[in-house]
Amino acid sequence: MTTGGFPSTTSLPVKDIGRLLLRCDDRPGLVASISSFLSEAGANIISLDQHSTAQTGGTFMQRTIFHMPGLSAARDEMERAFSDRVAGKFGMDFQLTEAAKPKRVAILASREDHCLLDLLWRNRRGELDMSVVMVISNHPDLADQVRPFGVPFLHVPAHKDIRAEAETRKLELLRGNVDLVVLARYMQVLTPRFLGEIGCPLINIHHSFLPAFVGEAPYRKAKERGVKLVGATAHYVTEELDEGPIIEQDVVRVDHRHGVDDLRRLGADVERVVLSRAVLWHCEDRVVRHGNQTIVF
Amino acid sequence: MTTGGFPSTTSLPVKDIGRLLLRCDDRPGLVASISSFLSEAGANIISLDQHSTAQTGGTFMQRTIFHMPGLSAARDEMERAFSDRVAGKFGMDFQLTEAAKPKRVAILASREDHCLLDLLWRNRRGELDMSVVMVISNHPDLADQVRPFGVPFLHVPAHKDIRAEAETRKLELLRGNVDLVVLARYMQVLTPRFLGEIGCPLINIHHSFLPAFVGEAPYRKAKERGVKLVGATAHYVTEELDEGPIIEQDVVRVDHRHGVDDLRRLGADVERVVLSRAVLWHCEDRVVRHGNQTIVF
Amino acid sequence: MTTGGFPSTTSLPVKDIGRLLLRCDDRPGLVASISSFLSEAGANIISLDQHSTAQTGGTFMQRTIFHMPGLSAARDEMERAFSDRVAGKFGMDFQLTEAAKPKRVAILASREDHCLLDLLWRNRRGELDMSVVMVISNHPDLADQVRPFGVPFLHVPAHKDIRAEAETRKLELLRGNVDLVVLARYMQVLTPRFLGEIGCPLINIHHSFLPAFVGEAPYRKAKERGVKLVGATAHYVTEELDEGPIIEQDVVRVDHRHGVDDLRRLGADVERVVLSRAVLWHCEDRVVRHGNQTIVF
Amino acid sequence: MTTGGFPSTTSLPVKDIGRLLLRCDDRPGLVASISSFLSEAGANIISLDQHSTAQTGGTFMQRTIFHMPGLSAARDEMERAFSDRVAGKFGMDFQLTEAAKPKRVAILASREDHCLLDLLWRNRRGELDMSVVMVISNHPDLADQVRPFGVPFLHVPAHKDIRAEAETRKLELLRGNVDLVVLARYMQVLTPRFLGEIGCPLINIHHSFLPAFVGEAPYRKAKERGVKLVGATAHYVTEELDEGPIIEQDVVRVDHRHGVDDLRRLGADVERVVLSRAVLWHCEDRVVRHGNQTIVF
Predict the structure, then answer these.
(1) D256 has a chain B CB within 8 A of its CB
(2) pLDDT at position D11, please?
(3) A193 Cα distance to chain centroid
(4) One-character DSSP codes across chain D
(5) Under a CB-based contact definition with an 8 Å cutoff, are residues C180 and C234 in contact?
(6) How confident is the model at residue C284 (pLDDT cuts 50, 70, 90)?
(7) Domains along the sequence of chain C with CATH
(8) Distance from CA of C294 to the nearest CA of B (A)
(9) Are B241 and D13 in contact (CB under 8 A)?
(10) What is the pLDDT of residues D46-73, one digit of tens each?
């Protein structure tokens, strides 16, 4: 059995729907202040989730979905007012987005097609709340499979010897143009310089249940260790390889009859579903990073 | 993989912790009104979950956990004030409970021990938020296993010919003394009269994935149909057998090699975990009934 | 967690690999007779699975994978010899196939693309042991998605008023040309006449955990009943709708927040993985029908 | 969903049922030789599973369950004959056991009761194929819970300063008296000397999904790493801590709301079910060790 995860807001009307994501030190009166602000602004709360990292004295995080007629026109003023009247007072980080404006996403891939195609196909079905603006690959192989989805495919060769130029080329393509980069089994290392300059979050899929089998060839290592489950992990990319905040994980049962190729095949199913959940949740503003962990509302 | 379900509040301090569960027609301003009331009453919201059955015009339900110094002394006055200032205005049903006052629970069992023992054992470990005030069985067999837990075991014989007297005896024991009755594989039919007079909710465990295999001998029927999964369902008891609101379900994988006895053995593991989750969630005031469905916060 | 199922023989060399599937009344000496025959024929057993429906007096089924140099040339003679020297003696049904000859498969679909595309993708990746010789749909919508896979797409309109002609057309296309028909969310009823004349097995995917929610609109019914899991069932098609032998089932967890559209979206993921497992297992000669049940080796 | 695992032979009649477990270099004719021997000895094969680690040139392992009238009387002679006529010829390791003779098992525990009690419950219900001959603990706490099961409870204090004496005492109690030692959350290190002298296999339950979070405090480490699943691993004990051959693993879903205590509580459910599966499979002679891996038939 898989866990289905969250209801998708993609099946709801998006007009006039806003999302307010915020974080601050916990203290009494936060929910009342925020909900009173929204109520006075003419917004009706559709759903509200909050989390505190401790019963007292922790960090408070909240995600609120609300309906407000005329949101698009009023959004900037609302943001200013919230900043002045609520966020400033409580020292809040916050983010106010409109459901009607899907995130602009680039997907980076290499030769493996399963994660890439699954994202494109789900997006075409309307399951993911994003606009895929380009696919970049260091191999030309998948062009014919990507372009029928109406998405530009860009071949940017990359290997150890031309890493700097390749990253420069990718930065030119991506910077300012996307809100999220998804690494769909992209097999090139990204340098700290790239991560520092990209200006948006990156989500990666690792083909093991982290922290087991970090690094290369996790299915081979899993076979050697004789594990009875293999898994996949979607996480935000940080400078430490395979150490970023985990968004989602899942596993599949295997046994002694499965060779490394079988693990790879069975694992691929887990990879694509885990990555697509993580991307959906990110695009719906469900994920809050807190240190090396995530809160997924 | 099982789904772990919710964090248990049983691992938290319970002093001064209150739970407010409510339901009303949805309309703007509800969250603000409720959270403002709590804030003004000196209560700090620890967690808040809400659900609307429709984006507009549906039923609104909310569960709020709050911390308020001196709650025990102030509870009755708080309830009155909430009724006057909030609940009345919005036509709310609500319920205000204290985490420090666990529900009084009776368990009814027959000969099967797995669900009964698992509940008693989890409760001894402090995993369930309840006080088991008695076990009633229509067979004497399990007395020696129950009494070491410090729980009274009462043998009330019951079969078709003495149903009325048996139910009268059970009603004398239970009515007013318990907040919840758990049927832990209790194999006697309960009449509408009993359900009408008991005065508290009942939770039953059915040994199939409802609505598949209603009625008797579900594992035999499952074997005959050749299903690849068998399951269990915990639900509130209503007059319609096996038709009450479902609280929790889970399944286990089986195959052609499993005989009916194997299904029974494997299913028993699912039954005990599904029932214990349902009882925990009920005792923590997480479950709201809505027609023939449940919302589990 | 999903169950990965069986190792795929598709990752093994297929040259000289044979599969012997058989069924007869159980009696002593069967395994010895069969394995001695294979040994004397120069075949080395790679894997062997057997099942008896009862400890004594039941039905015996066995699947044997073996390696025999020159199998293709020797196959017909081997079949004759096995029939004479073993099968006749024990009253066996048997089937001798070569791994190097994948089954010829037709897929029937309507408008929904998830099951169809998943089968085509997996087959292109080499995960399924089949040759897709045509896709037939009663709608033209999916032609552009199917043809890039190099598979013929045939539009055969079908509805209640032209059922007989439509079935005749399909029979002309299919009969003798395919070893298996897969109904990938094909939304037309197939008549007993069609099933009688098609001359090969059909596998269907039903979008519920059978026997729960037979018939139409299972996700709507699931929502109304308030279940906590939804599922899918792959089964052989028989004249009784939704009653054929079950090959595989799986489920996904849902809750009160999921609307019918969410159930449909989450269920689609289960449907495609359940169907692809059933098709793979059938194509690898793993499935034996026994009354209304299946043995999956 | 949990995986149910294997059908239990404990629900079958055990009289005259034998189990033959063997391992040798793979070569043609093995299955034929073994099944012919059994057939000639008057044994009827009830079930047979085999596995080769490679298509050719690997290690061959087989588990055969057979029925032979008068097995108990004939067993020693049968063992001799098999050794002479089959095992010697192929260089086989083998083991011939009777289902009617359950393994003698000792359970070592410390203060945690969940794994210990679950084993004792299941065994009382007839689910496990073993005879528990003693429970040894380094704490006296659980005596009152163990003795009502009719099992001797022995308190053998153990800590760093008296490790040698404590191990000597345990060896005196165990050596020759048990066929298996189960560490049911036993929190003392066992030295290489102890492992060398005990003369029977040991099964341990580790409270993480190995190889993630080896060593101490895995639930705390899991919380810090922000994983979305926690698990448990049952493995044979070797001199390398947490490195022995894995018999079974499973996981449970967790999220940001779960504190370390919640992980411990949810993990305990996984631990007890994983350990009980591993013990059952070992007691039914299903598990073959092969290097650092296990084959579970």
Answers:
(1) no
(2) 53
(3) 21
(4) -EE--SPPGGGS--TTEEEEEEEEE--TTHHHHHHHHHHHTT-EEEEEEEEESSSSSSEEEEEEEEE-TTHHHHHHHHHHHHIIIIIHHHT-EEEEEETTSPEEEEEEE-S--HHHHHHHHHHHTT-S-EEEEEEEESSSTTHHHHGGGT--EEE----GGGHHHHHHHHHHHHTTT-SEEEESS--S---HHHHHHS-S-EEEEESSSTTTT-SS-HHHHHHHHT-SEEEEEEEE--SSTT-SPEEEEEEEE--TT--HHHHHHHHHHHHHHHHHHHHHHHHTT-EEEETTEEEE-
(5) no
(6) very high
(7) 17-98 (3.30.70.260), 103-296 (3.40.50.170)
(8) 7
(9) no
(10) 889 999 888 778 999 999 999 999 999 9
Q: How many CB atoms lie within 10 A of CB B69?
A: 11
Angstrom distance (rounded) from CA D136 to CA D36:
45
∠ CA(A141), CA(A142), CA(A144), 5° rounding?
105
Residue with tokens 């996307």: A178
- Pairing type for strands B229-236 and B246-253 reads antiparallel
Mean pLDDT of chain D: 93
End-to-end CA separation in angstroms for chain C: 21
Are C142 and C112 contacting, i.e. CB atoms less than 8 angstroms apart? no
ipTM of the complex: 0.91
Q: Radius of gyration of chain A from Cα atoms?
A: 21
H or E segment to which residue C120 belongs: helix C114-124
C91-108 per-position pLDDT tens digit: 999 999 999 999 999 999
- Residues from chain B that touch A51, judged by Cβ atoms under 8 A, are 47
Q: CA C45 to CA C39: how far, in whole Å?
A: 8
| B228 contacts C246? CB cut-off 8 A | yes
Contacts of B among chains (3+ CB pairs under 8 A): A, C, D
Query: In the complex, which subunits touch A with 3 or more CB pairs below 8 angstroms?
Result: B, C, D
Nearest Cα of chain D lies from the Cα of B227 at a distance, in angstroms, of: 13
Distance from CA of D144 to the nearest CA of B (A): 9
Q: Which of D269, D271, D297 is nearest to D23 (CA)?
A: D297
Distance from C-alpha of A7 to C-alpha of A10, rounded to nearest angstrom = 9
- CB-based contact C18:C42 (threshold 8 Å): no
CB C82 within 8 A of CB C24: no
Residue A269 in tokens: 């199913």
The residue to which tokens 């997480």 are assigned: B286
Nearest to B287 by CA among B228, B225, B234: B234
What 8-state DSSP symbol labels residue C56? Answer: S
- Cβ–Cβ of A8/C265 closer than 8 Å? yes
Task: Report the alpha-carbon distance of residue D245 to residue D295 in Å, rounded.
Answer: 10
Integer Cα distance of B4 and B97 in angstroms: 25
Provide the pLDDT for residue C93. 95
A283 pLDDT exceeds 70?
Answer: yes
Which residue of B9, B10, B11 is the best one to mutate when testing the D interface, meaning the one whose CB has the most D CBs within 10 A?
Answer: B11
